[in-house]
Specification:
The chain has 114 residues and is α+β, with helices and mostly antiparallel strands. The protein has two helices and nine strands. It has one domain: Sandwich (Hypothetical Protein Aq_1857, Chain: A).
Length: 114
């Protein structure tokens, strides 16, 4: 299912996803963005390449790459943006998530407003 209105992919993130996929040589996998319980704030982001897209997954495309998000994760990510940062502390994907009440210093986990 394509649903471009509720989750965005920055140009930097799309470019980096494309580089990662090209280096793997896989035939057009997508980056899966998911949320799971855990981390220091209650929820944590997960990123992995995935060629298996379920019927109920939401598919987002930008810059020639695909990002998939399962419905439960999209409930927690809706209205957010996937970005990529390359700073002194390291290079990594980040989610600018309007649903997060707080996030840890490394940006990999978050909590929701109570």
């Amino acid at each position: 299912m394509t649903d471009s209105a509720s989750f965005c992919i920055s140009e930097r993130a799309a470019r980096r996803i494309g580089e990662i996929i090209a280096s793997k040589g896989d035939p057009a996998p997508a980056l899966r963005v998911a949320v799971s319980a855990g981390g220091c704030n209650g929820f944590q982001y997960e990123f992995r390449l995935d060629s298996d897209i379920a019927d109920d997954d939401h598919l987002f495309e930008a810059g020639g790459v695909r990002v998939v998000v399962d419905p439960a994760s999209l409930d927690l990510l809706g209205g957010g943006e996937l970005d990529y940062t390359d700073k002194l502390m390291g290079a990594h994907f980040v989610v600018n998530n309007p649903n997060a009440a707080s996030a840890c210093g490394c940006g990999t986990s978050f909590s929701l407003a109570g």
